[in-house]
Amino acid sequence: MKLSSLLFTLIIIFPGILQAKSPEQVKSAFLFQIAKFIEFPQVNNNQAVTFCFYDTKHGIGKLLNDNSSLKINNMPIETVLIDKNQQISELSRICDITYIDETMEDDIIPLWIDTISLNTLTVGESINFLEKGGVVSLVQEGNKIRLYINRQQLLRCSFKVQSRLLAVSKFHPN
Fold first, then answer.
1. What are the residues whose beta carbons fall under 8 Å from the beta carbon of 76, sequence distance 6 or more?
2. Which of 21, 29, 49, 173 yields a CA-CA distance of 20 to 30 A from 76?
3. Which stretches in the chain have pLDDT values below 70?
4. What 3-state DSSP class applies to 30?
5. Phi and psi for 153 in degrees, rounded to 5?
6. What CATH number does residue 141 fall under?
7. Domain total for the chain?
8. Which stretch of DSSP H or E encloses residue 163?
């Protein structure tokens, strides 16, 4: 029942999902919805939910950047283009959610995971991402996108995840 309500919400917010032609469209909808179920600590009285991407010209970063008028819990969303060479401490101050696509995981994870703020939700695209310390992963399995959560990393984080999101997630490791 809870999964169906999440999917219904995805369809209402992103009506184009019914005609989704790419996994990126589905992942961007999931990423947006995930943010609704997370309570981030207010570090700098930030008045927006900030999504950070290594690419805002293509894929998920572009899709959310193009829909910057969306709101999460009455707060606007903001997309930020980040660079591999930016200081980790700077990124952890400005990013609520950082998305790392599968092509960049091996380059980025070693730099991020041990130094990233516990206030930042890291989202990837593979089980490998979770095994290396990421918190959430949107894994494509056949023609479906599944939400996986690294329970051990989640317990270390300072943000709170609502039980409704946990109920529709799979955990890795079990």
1. 47, 48, 49, 68, 69, 70
2. 21
3. 1-21, 42-46, 85-90, 106-117
4. helix
5. -70, -40
6. 3.40.50.2300
7. 1
8. helix 163-167
